[in-house]
Amino acid sequence: MPEKTGPLTRRLFALFSEILDYPNPKTAEQAQECALLLAKTGRDAQEKMSGFAGYSSRAPLGSLEEIYTSTFDIQPVCCPYAGHHLFGEGFKRSTFMVKLTGMFREMDFSPPQGELPDHITVLLRFLAGHSGSEQGFELARHCLLPSIKKMHKSLKNTFNPYKDALESLERMLEQIKGPEKKQKKPPRTEKTVGGLA
Known about the structure:
By secondary structure, this protein is mainly alpha-helical. It has one domain (7-195): TorD-like (Orthogonal Bundle), CATH 1.10.3480. Helix content is 62%, strand content 0%. It has helices spanning 7-19, 27-41, 45-58, 61-73, 82-87, 91-106, 120-130, 134-154, 161-174.
């Protein structure tokens, strides 16, 4: 069932931004918290995040760092930039990044220093604070979701723990419902006066 964005969803976006960033000693703990929160929402995304949480808690941090680097960084199997997945490399991606930067500025969001605005962790951090806005919903549904689907697909036939994390995020994004738009009242005319339409 689609869910409106609230504190739980914003916390999940924050956790996914940490989980899909370079591993650190808290990654397994964050993945476990994410799986627990996903279970509370009734989403089927919880199962996949539990798989990632289990792997990240058993694997040495150095091993997880190597997997992350080969997956997302050096000659990546899975490019972590939404603009790349939506537009390829070129002018359209550059225009997209300029628009993201403008939106971030307008919404008083400062991305991490040195990171491109279309990096998935930057987008997730933005959504952790702004997912309830119309811009946040549009970004999640029409930018992040198609990018995550492509990233997940690129790992489909591999044994890679990040495949589970990406599938979990994909399932969560598919369930998000946009902000309710105020319904415009029809103009008052002779036909609408007195409830007659």
